[in-house]
Specification:
The protein has ten helices and eleven strands. With 309 residues, it is an alpha/beta fold. The chain has two domains: 183 residues, Bordetella uptake gene, domain 1 (D-Maltodextrin-Binding Protein, domain 2), CATH 3.40.190; 95 residues, D-Maltodextrin-Binding Protein, domain 2 (3-Layer(aba) Sandwich), CATH 3.40.190. InterPro entries: BUG (IPR005064), Bug_dom1 (IPR042100).
Length: 309
């Protein structure tokens, strides 16, 4: 009897979802880290929801992800449209330009990836530890150029937070993307950089990661200390998850919430993400919303104190 009741409840929950396909909007081009995450999760979500529902990914790149974030925020709130959400980037964008969404424009479903930032130097720079680097920065304030993928994102915020925690000053050097920042660092054109740990993987012969900006060591680089271990309370990185428009009907919200809760324990999905080089950190529902609000507060404070445009 219990099994029959459970089956009826599952059928009823599924019936509340839209009849047509569920579209996952990705605000970036195909092939990037966010797109790969979205397609991986979409495949497993389709299996979790059952054969009656298909999940398709649609890329809408442009304006640093803003086009995609806006599309999701303005979509009909019926469960037929989901979207990738990147923190802190998505909410930082609302500070330096006109935006048609804010933190309250979404139903927060699940964060899947947390790629922490690092403090990284050229392998032959001669810095053996984070304190070696910070001592050099203290001796010559502003003399060490720090490579960033851009202003107004997790790299920029990492640099600001590191400066504050260590009472040092770097000269920020923004590039057009992480690959250009990494190339400048490997070429010795800048002294130090901050980029996500995932962006350093495969470049170990040329780069030395001095610290990971998280509260615990990463399984991707277990031998690298955290900044917190070294006495600097700095945490920042790139979060990638999925949201829906705000004000979903309660039954749809429950159905999606249950599906993502199940995916958070899907070992096949988690293994697949890890094999792609994605540091997994599952944050669900209200906790995900709290994470977004926390990241928004950090971005707003930095914008108020040191606006980047």
């Amino acid at each position: 009897m219990t099994g029959a009741v459970a089956a009826l409840m599952t059928t009823a929950a599924a019936a509340e979802m839209p009849d047509g396909p569920i579209e996952v909007i990705v605000g970036y081009s195909a092939g990037g880290g966010t797109d790969v995450m979205a397609r991986t999760v979409a495949n497993h979500l389709e299996e979790e929801l059952g054969d009656s529902l298909s999940v398709v990914v649609k890329n809408m790149p442009g304006a640093g992800g803003q086009i995609g974030f806006t599309e999701v925020a303005q979509a009909q709130a019926d469960g037929s449209t989901l979207g990738t959400f990147n923190l802190p980037a998505a909410l930082a964008l609302t500070l330096d330009r006109d935006a048609s969404y804010d933190a309250d424009s979404y139903t927060y479903l699940a964060n899947f990836v947390q790629d922490p930032n690092t403090i990284v130097v050229p392998r032959d720079a001669g810095y053996e530890s984070l304190d070696d680097l910070l001592d050099a920065a203290r001796e010559a304030p502003g003399a060490l150029p720090m490579a960033l993928s851009s202003l107004g994102g997790n790299d920029h915020f990492s640099a600001i937070l590191m400066q504050e925690a260590a009472d040092v000053e770097f000269t920020m050097v923004p590039f057009k993307g992480a690959s250009m920042a990494r190339s400048a660092l490997m070429g010795g054109h800048v002294a130090v950089g901050t980029m996500t740990l995932g962006q350093t993987v495969g470049f170990e012969e040329n780069l030395k990661v001095l610290a990971v900006l998280d509260d615990e060591r990463s399984e991707v680089a277990p031998d690298v200390p955290t900044a917190q271990e070294l006495g600097y309370d700095v945490q920042m990185g790139s979060f990638r998850g999925l949201v829906a428009p705000a004000d979903l009907p309660e039954d749809v919200r429950t159905s999606l919430g249950d599906a993502f809760a199940a995916l958070s324990e899907d070992e096949a999905l988690l293994t697949e993400l890890r094999e792609q080089g994605s540091p997994v950190n599952i944050v669900l529902g209200d906790d995900y919303r709290a994470l977004a609000e926390e990241q928004a507060e950090i971005a707003a404070r930095i914008w108020e104190e040191t606006p980047w445009k």
